[in-house]
């Protein structure tokens, strides 16, 4: 990960529940998004951890459909930070 780039990739994983979310974030406010998003996820899903590796690198390679959004991957503009976000959902095979 290049800390000086506006294009960042990271994941949030819940080892105990065997799921993982990849994030690709584009925009100058990527760090604000990353911090706010992790705070929200760690509140909603205690036990998650943020990782610099992708979900595949962490062994989560089976596609997973988000119960909240009903999709495996989605792209959106975060309303709070203005960054473009693509998130993908994975689980252990």
Question: What would you note in describing this structure?
Answer:
16% of the residues lie in helices and 37% in strands. With 93 residues, it is of the alpha+beta class. The protein has one domain. Strands 1, 2, 3, 4, 5 and 6 form a 6-stranded antiparallel sheet that branches. Strand 1 and strand 2 form a beta hairpin. The longest helix is centred in the middle third of the chain and has 15 residues, at 30-44. The mean pLDDT is 93.
Secondary structure elements and pairings:
Layout: E1 7-14, E2 19-26, H1 30-44, E3 49-51, E4 62-63, E5 73-77, E6 84-91
Antiparallel strand pairs: 1-2, 1-3, 2-6, 4-6, 5-6
- Basic shape: globular
Please count the beta strands (DSSP E, at least 2 residues each).
6
The residue ranges in which pLDDT falls below 50 over 5 or more consecutive positions are: none
Q: How many distinct folded domains?
A: 1
The multimeric state of the shown protein is single chain
Helix content: 10-25%
CA(first)-CA(last) distance: 26 Å
Averaged pLDDT: 93
**How is the main sheet built?**
6 strands, antiparallel
Class inferred from helices and paired strands: alpha+beta
Computed Rg = 13 Å
Q: Helix count?
A: 1
């Amino acid at each position: 990960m290049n800390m000086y780039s506006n294009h960042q990739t990271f994941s949030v994983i819940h080892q105990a529940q065997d799921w993982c979310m990849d994030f690709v974030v584009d925009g100058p406010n990527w760090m604000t998004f990353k911090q706010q998003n992790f705070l929200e996820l760690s509140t909603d899903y205690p036990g998650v951890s943020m990782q610099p590796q992708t979900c595949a690198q962490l062994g989560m390679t089976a596609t997973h459909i988000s119960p909240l959004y009903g999709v495996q991957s989605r792209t959106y503009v975060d309303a709070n930070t203005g960054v473009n976000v693509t998130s993908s959902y994975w689980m252990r095979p």
